[in-house]
Design brief:
OB fold (Dihydrolipoamide Acetyltransferase, E2P); 2 helices; alpha+beta
Amino acid sequence: MKIRSAIFSTLFMIHGVVMADECTTWGCFSTIETLYVNASGNIFVGTPLDETKANCTASSGVFFTLNTKSSNAKEMYSSLLAAYMANSKVQLRIIEGSGSCELSYIRLGKY
């Protein structure tokens, strides 16, 4: 029994820690539930979690925003679309204290 436990523990450490879906002060780690683009070109991102836990003011109380004037906005939007289409988990890091929960970066990975 101890050998099985040791093998399981070793395999778990090799594969890394499984990250749970969560929203916290820095942003959210989850799947993307909503991508919303309005006629003005604003891009809003929603997860199935509570974005109000982030240290910012979520747009409409539920969305993070992508600044379309950022030099890499197209790349960030492309990453968001890829994660949405694949139903993959993504880390959405916001600029803490921003009035619109502006995304600082997006991280994709095999979690």
